[in-house]
Structure formats: structure tokens, C-alpha cells
Amino acid sequence: MTATGRPAPAGQARAVRLGPRSVAALGLVSAVGVVAFAWPFLAPPASALNAHAQDAPWLFAGLLVLLVAVVAATISESGLGAKAVAMLGVLAATGAALRPIGAGTAGIEPMFFLMVLSGRVLGPGFGFVLGSVTMFASALLTGGVGPWMPFQMLSMGWFTMGAGLLPGPDRLRGRGELVLLAVYGFLAAFAYGTAMNMAGWPFLGELASRISFDPDAAVPENLARFLAYCAATSLGWDLGRAVVTVVLTLTLGPAVLRALRRATRRAAFETAVTFEDPRPVKHPT
């Protein structure tokens, strides 16, 4: 019972229960991902890596593909059953279909709010796999396949997983939960845009000398260049994405959350599926 005398809500079902091996795999790929995104600020000016500034993103992209695949396989092995796979397919297909709606229009990306709500209901493990698979499927759907795709997959995996790590998944409901999700969606939309800027920024080369990555410059100078790059290229888009995510979360969030929670209860992810032999049992006479 709660302090108001109402029955406390039952624990929320999780499509995937993360075990130690899954947590370790997520930690590993996240650590490598941080290096893959932030290497221009981590490598000293005299580093050999800076001498290959145009090649490094390709190297990290190939590495991230393998690591994300390993993490997805590890999480699947830890308990992604048939019911969870079916829901993963439905949500990933829906998210992939929503993404082209805003193609070419600044910030109108409704798939982000669906990822936030799905991660919240289904947990961080399912959220990471859902975010990665959705971005992969949408890239194939829109023809957006390139060295940036693995970075998008990892960033969206983090984005969706973060929603599953927000506090109060079993008890926080109503307006308080919606505000929490809206604030998270707003901040995470900017974080996603910043991460993708970091992934693409080293590719500029001499195209924009004042805001491009300079392998010979010190970290403070490159940081100033990066901030100028973000302001010049994606600030308006990120703001639009954040605002759309907040608006959709506050308006459609209650209905979507109810639908997702109803689906998880009916799916009963944590209930083992058993099959009975239809043949009659013969008893010895």
C-alpha cells in the first residue's frame, strides 16, 4: 500500500534481465564508443592517430559494428525470448517507418519519442538493442548507409538505454513521469546530435578550415572549433528534435505508455513458455 492508501503498482516487467556478462559487454562497447567519438580530444597533437584523421572514423566504424553485434548477441543470449523478439521487431519497424517522416525537415523526428517511451517501459537491455536495431533498419530504409551508421546505432542504443535507467520505473506514474521523460528526451536529443557531430566532424578536412578538426591544434582550439561547428551546422536541427520529442511525449505519451505496459503484461516476458504433448498419456494396466 502507498501512503495515500492505494495499492502499490506491481513491479514492471522487463523484456530482458541484464546479467553480469551483458553488463560487462555493454560497459566495454560504451568505453570503446566513447573513444571512437571523442578521439580528436583524447589524442595529443603529435599522435600517429591524428595523422590518419580521415581514416580513423572508418576504423572506428568497422570496430563499432562488431562490438554492437557482440553486445546484441550477448543480451539476446541472456534472455531475449520469442515474445521479446516479436515486440522488438514491431517497435523497430515502427521506429524505422517514423524516421523518414522528418527527412529534410529540421528536427521533425518522431522516432525519438517512441524510443524514449519504449526504453522506459521495457528496460535498458531491451532499449539498447531496440535503439541499435531501429537505427540500422531505418538506415536501410532511407539509404543512409555509410561510415556514420555504426555511430548512429551506438548513439541511439545509448539514448534508448538511458530512458530505461531513469529512476522510478515501477512507482512513478502520471504527470511526474511524463515530465521526467520529457526532460530526458529534451537533453538526450541534444546529446545525440552532439555525439553525431563528433563522429562526422573529423571528415570535414579542408572543407571548412575555421571550424574543421585540425590535427596539429591543441585541445582547447579544437574544442572551440567543434563548438562553432555545432552552432553552425546542427543547433537548429537539434533544438527542433528536442522540442518535437517533448511535445510528443507530453501529448501522446500517456496513451503510448499504457499501450506498451499493457503489451508487456500480456506478453508476460518473465513467464517461461512451455509446450505440452498433445498425445494422451497411457497408464499401465
How would you portray this structure in words?
By secondary structure, the protein is an all-alpha fold. Helix content is 64%, strand content 0%. α3 (82-98) packs across α5. The chain is globular, with a radius of gyration of 22 Å.
State the gist of this model:
By secondary structure, the protein is mainly alpha-helical. 64% of the residues lie in helices and 0% in strands. The model is unreliable at 1-9 (pLDDT under 50).
List keywords for this structure.
0% strand; single chain; 285 residues
Using the CA coordinates, give the radius of gyration: 22 Å
Major sheet: size, sense and barrel closure? none
Poorly predicted residue ranges? 1-9
Order of helices and strands: HHHHHHHHH
Beta-sheet strand percentage?
A: under 5%
* Extended strand count: 0
Structural class: mainly alpha
- Report the end-to-end length measured between terminal Cα atoms: 54 Å
Q: What gross morphology would you assign?
A: globular
Summarize the helices and strands and which ones pair or pack.
Blueprint: H1 20-42, H2 56-77, H3 82-98, H4 111-122, H5 124-142, H6 149-164, H7 175-200, H8 219-233, H9 235-267
Helix pairs in contact: 1-2, 1-7, 2-5, 2-6, 3-4, 3-5, 4-5, 4-6, 4-7, 4-9, 5-6, 6-7, 7-9
